[in-house]
Design brief:
The structure holds two protein chains of two kinds.
Chain A: H1 2-30, H2 41-48, H3 50-83, H4 89-101, H5 104-115, H6 127-155, H7 159-168, H8 173-184, H9 186-202, H10 205-209, H11 215-225, H12 229-252
Chain B: E1 4-15, E2 18-29, E3 33-37, H1 44-52, E4 59-64, E5 67-68, E6 79-82, H2 94-104, H3 109-122, H4 138-150, E7 156-160, H5 168-185, E8 188-193, H6 196-202, E9 205-210, E10 213-218, H7 220-225, H8 230-235, E11 240-248, E12 253-256, E13 259-262, E14 275-280, E15 285-287, E16 295-306, E17 310-317, E18 320-327, E19 340-345, E20 351-353
Parallel strand pairs in B: 3-8, 3-9, 6-7, 7-8
Antiparallel strand pairs in B: 1-2, 1-4, 4-5, 9-10, 11-12, 11-14, 12-13, 14-20, 15-19, 16-17, 16-19, 17-18
Helix pairs in contact in B: 2-3, 2-4, 3-4
The chains are: A mainly alpha, B alpha+beta.
Chain lengths: 263, 354
């Protein structure tokens, strides 16, 4: 028993070293911009750079639009699969996993072939069209996370009975999804939303190859040309991701509790 | 039936090649409380779901208040329903749950608040409006579900095993409460249950279902005392079944093991030598002779179960076994296992099962 606990601690400490030493080293390096002293100079430079503000804002807006698109696609789909077509669940799960297997670059080349300026649907001919494709691409990349989060949320409620209870009280599909299903899986939807946000903020391939002014390509650009700022940016990116994860944890506490408790 | 409110005609439901409901016909009068009673898988819930509109019949018609609703969607039928699993909306408070149907129907807020308060006092939970479902016990949740179903003033109330998830004590009190509310409102109600005691105690009529068909429709008294089929006799209440052979059809005599019983004119159509099943309720049998009992069988006491107010005794004779109930009497100790005993009953109480 004691020996088991000892090795558990050893494993934990090794794991923590593996994750935290590079992070601490990066943080320490990011503070060394001024010679002979620690300072937040690199962070000041990063935050003061108009390109940082522009790219971060662009990526944040794209992330919000991706979340909206993801919710509009995933919530009704996952709900309908659970309610009416449970036999299709394995197929849909497989489809939602495809973005993890197929590289983003394949999507981009698909876009270029399908929606190039000489194609019948020349989305890539305009900036707005390209932005739309970027949002759709990101929604695809975030699909595995969003679908799983929503599906897990739906598993915690009795979808069929709640739907029937609402139907018999006169509610139509829109009312059922908007007022019963969505509020009951809201925490799961938000979990998926924050995961999506974290993915979109750091994504490089799609944004770079579609030539959009996103945060991912900006980080790459800074990383290739500067010394201390990339370290600061890496720490900022980590903080954003961890912030999203923390918000998911906090929100999970507010999840509606099941009404179906034994007497 | 002159004032038929719910009419179900030739209803059939098949899933693929499996037929789960067939030739189901029923007319329910306004304000009547009808129970669908049967074992799991007998089709009772499927019929209820077809009435609600959650399942489409493969054939047949359903009309409510003279209007054919067979092809209407559930939200167009103006029917209230209470589910076994309560199905309260977890994200809404008790008051919001009760108000849901009214809000969907676009009832003005003042009227809606009044109706919600009325419903909460009807279920005796007026101070629970701000609570969430998870803060209530199972019995309270089911009462809220009842209030929610009744709030939009439905024409028909469907209760799908609403008491199954509750403990025994709450089940009995809520059962009585449901019946009293139903009587006061005069709402036509269909109640699905597999619990015969529940069905017998609160129904105006019972539909006993088996294999997707209505085996018998009748009042609780008729169902219990005059079961039409062997299944109904076995399913409703405890029953002693004696296998015998007709020894003298013209005299109404049946030989059970080595003893002969006169069953009167109930052997319609049977001939000498035919096998017959005779059924007797435990409470129709007495230990020893009793005035009015014209039939007697001898045997040996094989089991004695003291149940408090009632003592259930099992008497073995030949290959058969008979259960009988006697009231506990503090001055008379219960019989002892192994004693010789004779049992008596009135041949009028014998049922010949077909």
């Amino acid at each position: 028993m004691r020996s088991g606990r000892f090795w558990a601690w050893v494993t934990f400490v090794l794991g923590a070293c593996y994750f935290f030493i590079p992070l601490i080293a990066t943080f320490e390096f990011s503070l060394r911009m001024k010679r002979g002293e620690y300072s937040f100079e690199a962070y000041k430079v990063v935050f003061g750079d108009p390109r940082f503000q522009a790219t971060f804002t662009y990526s944040a807006v794209v992330a919000v639009l991706t979340i909206i698109l993801g919710v509009l696609i995933v919530v009704p789909t996952a709900y309908w699969i659970r309610l009416r077509m449970p036999q299709l669940r394995p197929v849909v799960e497989f489809v939602t996993l495809l973005p993890l297997i197929i590289p983003a670059i394949v999507i981009v080349f698909g876009y270029i072939r399908m929606y190039g300026s000489s194609s019948p649907l020349p989305f890539l001919a305009t900036a707005r069209g390209t932005d739309a494709l970027l949002v759709i691409g990101y929604a695809t990349l975030a699909l595995p996370y969003m679908y799983r989060a929503v599906d897990t949320g739906l598993r915690t409620i009795d979808v069929r009975t709640l739907t029937e209870a609402a139907q018999i009280l006169g509610a139509g599909w829109t009312t059922i999804v908007a007022r019963i299903i969505l509020p009951n899986v809201l925490i799961s939807v938000l979990s998926g939303a924050f995961l999506t946000f974290a993915i979109v903020i750091g994504e490089f391939t799609l944004a770079s190859l579609l030539n959009r002014p996103a945060f991912g390509p900006y980080m790459q650009l800074i990383g290739a040309n500067r010394a201390y700022e990339p370290a600061a940016l890496a720490i900022i990116a980590f903080i954003i991701t961890w912030g999203c994860m923390s918000v998911i944890q906090v929100l999970a506490r507010f999840a509606p509790k099941s009404a179906n408790q034994p007497n | 039936m002159a004032d038929t409110f719910l009419s179900i005609q030739n209803l059939r439901k098949s899933f693929g090649t499996t037929t789960v409901v067939q030739d189901f016909n029923l007319d329910v009068s306004t304000g009547e409380f009808v129970s669908f009673l049967g074992p799991s898988g007998c089709g009772k819930t499927t019929v209820l779901r077809m009435v609600a509109g959650f399942e489409q019949p493969s054939a047949g018609a359903i009309s409510v208040g003279g209007k054919d609703v067979t092809r209407l969607k559930p939200n167009q039928r103006n029917i209230g329903m209470v589910f076994q699993a309560y199905a309260l909306f977890p994200n809404l408070t008790v008051a919001q749950n009760v108000a849901f149907g009214l809000k969907v129907a676009g009832v003005p807020k003042a009227e809606m608040d009044k109706r919600v308060a009325e419903m909460l006092s009807l279920i005796k939970l007026p101070e629970f409006g701000d609570r969430y479902p998870y803060q209530l016990s199972g019995g309270q949740q089911q009462r809220v579900a009842l209030a929610r179903a009744l709030a939009p003033r439905p024409k028909l109330l469907l209760l799908d095993e609403p008491l199954s998830a509750l403990d025994a004590k709450v089940r009995v009190s809520l059962r009585d409460e449901i019946r009293s509310i139903q009587r006061n409102l005069g709402i036509t109600t269909i109640f699905v249950t597999h619990d015969q005691e529940e069905a017998l105690s609160i129904s105006d009529r019972i539909v006993v279902m088996y294999g997707g068909k209505a085996e018998q429709v009748g009042t609780p008294y008729e169902i219990y005392n005059r079961p039409a089929t062997k299944f109904v006799a076995n399913f409703v209440g405890t029953l002693n079944v004696l296998e015998g052979v007709v020894s003298d059809a013209s005299a109404g005599k049946v030989k059970v093991d080595t003893q002969e019983i006169v069953v009167g004119n109930k052997l319609n159509g049977s001939r000498n030598g035919d096998a017959v099943s005779l059924a007797l309720r435990p409470e129709a049998i007495a230990l020893g002779p009793r005035p009015g009992h014209d039939a007697e069988l001898g045997g040996r006491i094989s089991e004695v179960h003291f149940l408090g107010s009632v003592i259930r005794i099992r008497v073995g004779f030949g290959k058969g076994m008979i259960s009988l109930d006697t009231f506990n009497n503090s001055s008379t100790p219960p019989p002892v296992v192994g004693d010789q005993a004779s049992i008596s009953f009135s041949s009028n109480d014998l049922l010949v099962l077909h």
